[in-house]
Design brief:
single chain; two-stranded antiparallel sheet; globular
Length: 296
């Protein structure tokens, strides 16, 4: 990548070398009783794999005021909209529209949500869709010195990955040492895999959540899994009734990562009877982000 993006990458890498001196980031509790995982049906010995009870009647019908479109009011807080804006970034190779909320300069952590095909930034910035789970994420950012970015992705290939990388670099340069985490929904995972597999440069990542996306076995040959590679914590979230991407392939990749590098920080949360959008509705952001921060 050229121009100011390359300069930003250099700045991020320089300041990022001091990140280890800071205390581990921990997000304070926020509506945990409403958003914590329900009953655990199956758990691996080390807790890295969970099969989680998911029920449409409880987790959609009882939770939403308008089924699938608007959650009940006590699940949301408008404090998460503090500083929320719709913006655009032009750089030396493209342009990207995005929304942001939270702390811009000096943020301790930066979260970027990448939607799937057919979506746009309105999905990840919505307060009421997906059971209010994005509103919770916005509140966690605002209340814990974080920055939340949601770009509109029009290309899931190389150009889209470069556009998102430029956006991340711009804000990472304004928050030296901030932990950078990506949440990749459905086809958004195609961009995240490009970063993890090393085909596209991006500022150093602290963690990735892969939510209802495809399994890319190229990761097994990436530098992250080598003995001296820098591990990027990964959380896989999937539903057992996902009609777009088979959960069995994600589970096979999860197992293969554990075999290739037994101490690699990787988790899988499997939502029993959940469909394609279930992990986005049900992922416990605070629980998983605190694990990522502790292991990055």
């Amino acid at each position: 990548m050229r121009g100011f993006v390359a300069a930003l990458f250099a700045a991020v890498c320089f300041f990022g070398s001091f990140a280890g001196l800071a205390d581990a980031q921990t997000l304070g509790a926020y509506k945990d009783k409403l958003f914590s995982y329900p009953k655990i049906l199956e758990k691996s010995q080390d807790g890295s794999f969970l099969r989680i009870d998911y029920r449409v009647g409880r987790d959609i019908d009882e939770r939403d005021k308008i089924r699938g479109a608007k959650v009940k009011g006590f699940y949301v807080s408008m404090r998460g909209r503090k500083g929320q804006e719709d913006l655009s970034l032009s750089w030396n190779g493209g342009r990207i529209e995005y929304a942001r909320t939270g702390q811009v300069r000096g943020a301790q952590w930066i979260m970027v949500y990448l939607h799937g095909r057919g979506g746009d930034r309105s999905q990840g910035i919505s307060d009421y869709n997906f059971g209010g789970n994005f509103n919770r994420l916005k509140n966690l950012a605002v209340r814990n010195k974080g920055l939340y970015l949601v770009p509109s992705i029009t290309d899931f290939g190389v150009q889209g990955a470069r556009d998102v990388a430029a956006l991340i670099a711009r804000y990472a340069a304004q928050a030296p040492g901030a932990k950078i985490v990506l949440a990749c929904g459905s086809m958004g995972g195609q961009i995240c895999w490009q970063y993890l597999n090393g085909s596209i440069n991006v500022p150093p990542l602290s963690g990735v959540l892969m939510l209802a996306t495809h399994a890319d076995n190229q990761f097994l040959a990436s530098s992250h899994l080598s003995a001296n590679g820098r591990p990027v914590p990964i959380v896989f979230g999937h539903g057992t009734l996902d009609g777009a991407f088979a959960w069995q392939k994600t589970k096979a990749l999860f197992d293969s990562i554990q075999v290739a590098r037994p101490n690699y920080p990787v988790r899988m949360r499997l939502f029993n009877t959940g469909k394609h959008g279930t992990p986005i509705r049900m992922i416990d952001w605070r629980h998983e982000l605190n694990w990522i921060f502790a292991n990055s």
